[in-house]
Write a structure and sequence with these properties.
single chain; alpha+beta
Length: 380
């Protein structure tokens, strides 16, 4: 849908300029056609000049306000003086410029005090000039209405401009979020496959001279993994980025078997089939498997998924994880942020005995009341 914010802002600005033009024409005609002997040619000329200057100054103040630029106090004072001078010369509508300017520059109690004082002042002047009280009240209502209309048009243009900038910001954030999502999905889907391919290639290189037949088997596995990675990449472009927990677990166990890593599981089928676990659980399991293949030399892995009163708890533990000062990647940090976003948590770190453990709590409203500490203690 086309964004019409810029056009709406221009319409509001043009409408306010039209109102200022009406004020200027009315004031000029009023002074030039004034039949009272109280206004001489010099006073009329001064009134016309004051009206022109007041209108021009108001448009300058309005333009700076629209561009969110500071307005020097001298411009505000000059606008008030010129518009008031034109009002004193019988250009009544020029007072509306001052009322609109007061609304633009002041807020709260100061707006009420300044606007009220100015309105009382112009009312007293009209009464002193012999204007009928009912006519003076009517003119005051008109002045307030015109000033309010000028203020509303200007504020509308400012608000529409802010809305347009906010939309641009939201659009940029959405683009950044989508890029981050694609980056996470690529990391989740292809990271483990690439690590496994690297391990297979290293094994094939070692077997090249000693056992060509096993070397060929390893290269066949590499080809199969590459094909699997290509299919996952195609699925990513179609939006099919996350498999179910059971499928991810089966893929991990198959990978462990091919790499000669002993894997044991303790998975509650009811917990694995829950919606929350089936969305976040596969990502956590995939990242944990990728990390243990990349940063450790495991001989065994244990995977547990247990139900508790308010959450399903996934724990992945492996051996062969030596302490390292190397900075940790962003995969687990991203998953921790995802878990926290839905009210869960993710903890990962080394434990005694050269082991590495990942614990993810995925909140749910159903469960059997068991404690995740039991699950943690049941793993080596």
């Amino acid at each position: 849908m086309r964004d019409t914010s810029a056009g709406d802002a221009r319409i509001a600005v043009v409408a306010s300029w039209a109102i200022v033009l009406v004020i200027l024409v009315q004031g000029t005609l009023s002074m030039l056609t004034q039949v009272s002997d109280e206004l001489g040619p010099a006073q009329r000329a001064a009134g016309v000049v004051s009206g022109l200057a007041g209108a021009a100054l108001f448009l300058v103040v309005q333009r700076r306000t629209l561009r969110d630029r500071p307005v020097p106090p001298v411009l505000v004072v000059a606008t008030v003086v010129c518009a008031t001078g034109a009002f004193l010369a019988a250009a009544w509508l020029n007072a509306a410029l001052v009322l609109a300017l007061v609304g633009l520059r002041l807020t709260g109690r100061r707006l009420v005090l300044a606007g009220g004082a100015y309105a009382l002042g112009i009312t007293a002047f009209m009464l002193q000039q012999g204007v009928n009280p009912y006519l003076a009240f009517f003119l005051l209502v008109v002045l307030v209405a015109v000033g309010l209309l000028l203020y509303v048009m200007t504020r509308l243009a400012v608000t529409v401009g802010e809305l347009a900038r906010a939309r641009e910001t939201v659009a940029r954030l959405r683009v950044d979020e989508e890029r981050h999502r694609i980056s996470r999905d690529l990391h989740d889907i292809l990271g483990r496959s690439l690590v496994a391919v690297g391990l297979r290639v290293q094994t094939a290189i070692r077997l090249l001279d000693r056992d060509p037949q096993r070397c060929g088997e390893q290269l066949d596995e590499v080809a199969r993994m590459v094909t699997d990675g290509q299919s996952r990449l195609r699925a990513l472009t179609r939006g099919q980025t996350v498999t179910g927990f059971d499928d991810e677990l089966a893929a991990a166990l198959d990978l462990f078997e091919r790499l000669g890593i002993r894997a044991t599981t303790d998975v509650d089928p009811a917990a694995a089939s829950r919606e929350g676990t089936d969305r976040l659980g596969p990502r956590v399991l995939r990242e944990a498997v990728t990390n243990l293949l990349k940063h450790a030399r495991p001989s065994w892995v244990e995977i547990g998924l247990r139900r508790e009163a308010t959450a399903d708890v996934l724990v992945v533990v492996n051996d062969g994880a030596a302490e390292s000062d190397r900075p940790r990647g962003t995969g687990l940090a991203d998953l921790a942020a995802r878990a926290e976003a839905v009210g869960g948590s993710l903890e990962a770190g080394h434990v005694p005995g050269g082991r590495f453990r990942v614990i993810c709590r995925m909140p749910t409203l159903l469960g059997d009341g068991s404690d995740d500490a039991d699950l943690v203690r049941s793993l080596p």
